[in-house]
Write a structure and sequence with these properties.
single chain, alpha/beta, Lyase, Ornithine Decarboxylase, Chain A, domain 1, TIM Barrel, 9-stranded mixed beta sheet, 11 helices, binds ligand LLP
Length: about 425
């Protein structure tokens, strides 16, 4: 069975058919352990790809989780990638993703990153400002190339999400605002070093319904239609990602394949069915299929509070500290119920706090932090001299690959050399 569930008899935590209590056997040094269900990831990707149908592809936002095992699995079912750095681009290529299925986003790409994108001949560099378009033009001219660009517009759509992950409103640093669209078109069409191939947008993350996504997509279509009459025919529209997932907070967003189906319907309704459709989901493909297993170090009880202190901290999983995000934390070997505890990590910061969770009268020996497949490991750091965690990749109920923690000694040596 894909994803997280509880063993029907023992109630022990299971991910993708693998009993999570066994993760410790696969670890070479201490620390918390991420586990990912590759089959669950593949199943969701297949559903999204199926809903998009012909003339479309998924550009997986690999910032959510850039593990090679995940990229290779997604590439094997036909996914492409949305990359935001030269290193992500090279990683995607080496993981087997073809250049025609790669788009590059990011507000401040370096010259070296633009040059790499040009030399790899990726599907499009998504341009986020007129200033950047001029820079791409100059780099392409110097290299004697024609740069494929897509204009990432700022659709001025606000979403009901955490301020840090809302990107499509006027005051955000992302995308090109409406006033600048004519100048961008003029430069893109006039230059013989640029080829305008697409129009894109991304309104932000953790969308809980279709409204903002479809409003933004409609603006993309409006512009694509207007530009198709001026410019060389566009190849694609890209509606971005942002599909929310169920973090157990009571709000259950629609599944990602329904976002994809609505996107396709909208494109047809707008009379643009001949254009290729790109979508950029990140979180929804991987988030529910990752779990972080941590040992309980100790409890601490005062007259004011009851804490459970675990060996995973904000350096391993920063979402609660950074966005006030809620993740379910449950005993590894039994269902969550009974007494609630404040779960905190070992890092010397008050924000190293994962919130209150029902762990029972006595703290368990180990806990599982749920739905951490996206923006978990990729945001991890070594703060407080804490080495990056181990990652295990599961398929058919077995560990099929792992990335071991570099361990404390590697960190000590590197800092000594600094
Ligand atoms: N496309 C672009 C241009 C993006 O900037 C992003 C995410 C995505 C696609 C994918 O969005 P998704 O489908 O994963 O929501 N660290 C935050 C989320 C940051 C999202 C950044 N951009 C978090 O942990 O909630």
């Amino acid at each position: 069975m894909n994803g997280f569930h509880r063993h029907p008899e023992t109630q022990a935590a299971v991910l993708g058919g693998f009993p999570l209590s066994e993760v410790f056997r696969y670890q070479e040094s201490g620390g918390p352990i991420y586990a990912y269900d590759l089959d669950g990831i593949e199943a969701v990707a297949r559903a999204v790809i199926g809903a998009l149908g012909e003339r479309a592809f998924v550009a997986y936002a690999m910032k959510a989780n850039s593990a090679g095992s995940i990229l290779r699995r997604l590439a094997s079912v036909g996914a492409g990638a949305d990359v935001v750095s030269g290193a992500e681009l090279t990683l995607a290529r080496r993981a087997g993703i073809g250049p025609r299925k790669i788009v590059m986003s990011g507000v401040a790409k370096s010259d070296a990153e633009i040059d790499l994108a040009l030399s790899e001949d990726i599907r499009a560099i998504q341009v986020e400002s007129i200033e950047e378009l001029s820079r791409i033009e100059a780099r392409a001219r110097a290299a004697g190339k024609r740069g494929n660009v897509s204009v990432r517009i700022n659709p001025n759509v606000s979403i009901d999400s955490h301020a840090h992950i809302a990107t499509g409103h006027d005051a955000a640093k992302f995308g090109i605002v409406r006033d600048a669209w004519p100048a961008v078109l003029e430069l893109a069409v006039r230059s013989s070093s640029l080829c305008l191939v697409g129009v894109s947008a991304h309104v932000g993350s953790m969308l809980r319904n279709f409204d903002a996504y479809l409003a933004s997509a409609a603006t993309v279509c409006e512009l694509a239609r207007a530009w198709a009459s001026h410019a060389a025919p566009l190849e694609f529209v890209d509606f971005g990602g942002g599909y929310g997932i169920d973090y157990g907070t009571g709000e259950v967003p629609p599944p990602p394949h329904e976002f994809a189906a609505r996107a396709k319907d909208l494109l047809r309704a707008q009379g643009l069915g001949s254009l290729e459709l790109i979508v950029e989901p990140g979180r929804s493909l991987v988030g529910p299929f990752g779990a972080l297993v941590a040992r309980v170090i100790q409890s601490k009880v005062t007259h004011a509070r009851r804490w459970v202190m675990i060996n995973a901290g904000m350096n391993d999983m920063i979402r609660p500290a950074l966005y006030g995000a809620q993740h379910r934390i449950e005993p590894l070997e039994r269902s969550p119920e009974g007494q609630s505890w404040q779960v905190v990590g070992p890092v010397c910061e008050s924000s190293d706090d994962f919130g209150r969770h029902d762990l029972g009268a006595e703290p368990p020996e180990a806990v599982v932090v749920r739905d951490v497949g996206a923006y978990g490991f990729t945001l991890a750091s070594e703060y407080n001299g804490r080495p990056l965690p181990t990652e295990l990749f599961l398929s058919a109920g077995r560990v099929v690959s792992s990335s071991q923690s570099p361990g404390a000694e590697a960190w000590i040596e590197r800092r000594l050399r600094a």
